[in-house]
Write a structure and sequence with these properties.
Elements (H helix, E strand, L loop, with lengths): L1 E7 L2 E11 L2 E8 L2 E9 L1 H4 L7 H23 L8 E4 L16 E6 L4 E6 L5 E6 L5 H11 L9 H9 L28 H13 L6 H33 L25 H23 L1
Length: 295
């Protein structure tokens, strides 16, 4: 859930945004694009025993946790539910502009447990999918690779556990096996695929003696993460090249292309991204409404 205020002719409006997906639900309160509260309820402990997200367990957990998240967000923002003027929610993946300095058109690389997409956003309500996965998403592949390596989910989930394992320094290891880099699939094509990287981890484990030594876990985790990152960077570069060849009216090859990254805390499940989109849409609606009244 997210709450955001917007002012129009001196009146302050409060909107409510809700997020419930996979293994968490979220609530956030903002005012004039400033975050007043940000509540995220994780449910990793409920799913770890199943090895992945269990749909019916997730639904029941959302039903229990969402009212608590809403109540906490309202309390931290010092408002009541009666102060809320509107409710917003998302349906499917979206191209969200968390950084207001990003101007249309812009290219979005959306990475999550459910989606991996390259989107060309031309306005607040219009976007074109340039590339998506042929099999599984980046996040799901990370989760499955972590499960194959027997990593504990911890408080942040299996994907984060794999990333943390990759950060172990070589000085802490007596021996690190040399693993050949995993092949990056769909080379030269504007398409994504991550199932083969997950299979590479499974194949490496099957060739080793059990239990798999820590050094081999680290080496295979690094090989997987490097291959996934290389693919994302390659596809992002390829999409920029293709867009330049199409000579978009709004794009000049002489202009400098800037990169915008959301703060790290907004790169996992949260409702701030929904609030940001709602605020932009609301502002554009107010501009249209006010200009219409002046006619």
């Amino acid at each position: 859930m997210a709450l955001m205020t917007t002012e129009d002719n001196g009146r302050q409006y409060w909107e409510t945004e809700l997020l419930s997906r996979c293994d968490s639900c979220a609530a956030v309160v903002t005012s004039s694009r400033q975050i007043l509260s940000n509540v995220v309820v994780k449910q990793h402990d409920l799913h770890e025993g199943f090895g992945s997200i269990h749909p019916s367990v997730a639904i029941e957990a959302h039903q229990r946790n969402m009212p608590c998240a809403v109540r906490m967000a309202l309390e931290q923002a010092h408002i009541s539910i009666h102060d809320v003027d509107g409710i917003a929610f998302t349906r499917g993946p979206a191209s969200t502009r968390l950084d207001s300095s990003a101007q249309f058109p812009f290219l979005t690389l959306l990475i999550s447990g459910g989606h991996t997409l390259l989107l060309l956003a031309s306005s607040l309500t219009s976007s074109q999918i340039l590339a998506t996965t042929a099999d599984t998403s980046t996040g799901r592949a990370f989760d499955k690779a972590a499960r194959a390596l027997g990593l504990s989910w911890g408080t942040r989930g299996p994907g984060a556990a794999l990333e943390e394992l990759c950060r172990v320094t070589n000085d802490e290891l007596e021996f690190l096996p040399d693993i050949q880099p995993f092949t990056v699939p769909t080379s030269g094509k504007l398409a994504l695929s991550f199932a083969s990287l997950q299979s590479s981890v499974d194949r490496y484990i099957s060739l080793m003696e059990e239990p798999l030594p820590s050094s081999h876990k680290i080496a295979s985790a690094r090989a997987f993460q490097t291959a996934a990152a290389r693919q994302l960077c390659a596809k992002l570069t390829l999409s920029l090249q293709k867009l330049e060849l199409k000579a978009l009216d709004e794009y000049s090859s002489d202009e400098r292309i800037s990169l915008h990254f959301p703060p790290l805390e907004f790169c996992t499940d949260n409702a701030v991204m929904i609030a940001s989109q709602t605020s932009s849409l609301w502002s554009s609606m107010m501009v249209f409404h006010n200009s219409d009244k002046e006619k």
